[in-house]
Amino acid sequence: MNIYDIKSINKNIYGRKRFPLKKARDYVESLINSFKKYYLELGYKEELPLPISSGFDPSVVFIGSGISVLKPRLFAGTLSSPGYFIVQNCVRARNVNSLLDCSYTHMWGSYFTNLLLIAPPGRLRSTCNETFDYFEHRLGIAPVNMLIHINSADTDLMDICMQRYGTKILEIDTKEHIYYKHKIGVEGVIGRSFNLALRRPSSNEFCDIGNFIIHTYEDRQFFVEIGFGASTILKELYGLDHVQDCTPVIGLHVENEVIKRKFEDTIITCTVLFREGLRPFTRDNRNRILKQYLRAMSYFRAKSGLSIKDLSQIISNFERMEFPKSSLHVTDDVIKSLQIVENDLLFKKNVSKNERIIRETLRAIKI
Fold first, then answer.
1. SS3 sequence, the chain?
2. 230-260, pLDDT tens digit by residue?
3. pLDDT digits (tens, 9 = 90+) for 21-77
4. How far apart are CA 215 and CA 157, in angstroms?
5. Other CB atoms within 10 Å distance of the CB of residue 340
6. Is the previous residue joined to 82 through a cis bond, with omega within 30 degrees of 0?
């Protein structure tokens, strides 16, 4: 009998059972509050998040990590101890160029919440152990269900992990060299990392949830960065099918799993960016990317045979569930923009390859 057989039929290896999708927001908030409380108790200071499309960090189009907001702290003098943390909503738009390729599903959603902290380089060991304590004692994750991907050349990081866990949960030198390297968009700043993975409840596989990084600048240790995706943690703890189940799009009934997940990604990302005031009709990199997501949404709407009316209701339900305390509603704006995009595609003379695919799909379905 293996470790999966001895648990209650209703609970997984983490002692948890899958939550109802309608309650997903509550579980995300619970994890966020747990993270905040833990690091505040340790004396870390909280940095407030910024809008994803703020342009605060000129090295990126959208804020894709909390480090974009914390960069000024790094160059303002000595980083105060024990450090800072942030809970930052992010968009990483790398999915956008392959949305129309329905031969595979993206493992990650474009939109997610980043839990991230920074600390002075002298606290590398302490900060790593504090974070291990968080996972073990606050989240109740046994080391047997953790895996650390690490490069043997990073002897300082190896020493920390070996002292804590020995070699039992270390997977050494199994990744490409670049896997252990990181950049923050500042010339001369280079990071070396080990990654933490959690065991998937339904198998003996592990899935990465975040990084422990020591950054150097001008040949000296500069700062420690540790970051995780809230949805990647929750996916493994609760045995979810996909990270997007943490921001569920209720009512989207699509049999093809690949199309469903990519359709969800477009709905989530478009809604989030519309709520920040972006619109797809100006020549700006942020709006150009938004337009690509909107066109992909049109494609999946047609592939799924979903009417404009039904799509409008689905987006409205998502918006109310994901942002329950907000009086702002952008569903009508999303739908109006979608219809403009579709009409443009149907009658445009010169179209790209992807635009042609979308147009042909729209014409075939006739909705």
1. CCCCCCCCCCCCCCCCCCCCHHHHHHHHHHHHHHHHHHHHHCCCEEECCCCCCCCCCCCCCCCCCCHHHHHHHHCCCCCCCCCEEEEEEEECHHHHHHCCCCCCCCCCCCEEEEEEEEECHHHHHHHHHHHHHHHHHHCCCCHHHEEEEECCCCHHHHHHHHHHHCCCCEEECCCCHHHHEECCCCCCEEEEEEEEEEECCCCCCEEEEEEEEEEEECCEEEEEEEEEEHHHHHHHHCCCCCHHHHCCCCCCCCCCHHHHHHHHHHHHHHHHHHHCCCCCCCCCHHHHHHHHHHHHHHHHHHHHCCCHHHHHHHHHHHHHHHCCCCCCCCHHHHHHHHHHHHHHHHHCCCCCHHHHHHHHHHHHHCC
2. 999 999 999 999 999 999 999 999 999 999 9
3. 999 999 999 999 999 999 999 999 999 999 999 999 999 999 999 999 999 999 888
4. 12
5. 13
6. yes
Residue 6 pLDDT greater than 50, yes or no: no
pTM above 0.90, yes or no: yes
**What domains does the chain contain, in order, with CATH numbers?**
21-244 (3.30.930.10), 249-365 (no CATH)
Q: Which amino acid is at 254?
A: V
Answer yes or no: is pLDDT of 366 > 60.
no
pLDDT digits (tens, 9 = 90+) for 163-177: 999 999 999 999 999
The pLDDT tens digits of the residues spanning 336-359 come to 999 999 888 887 777 777 777 788
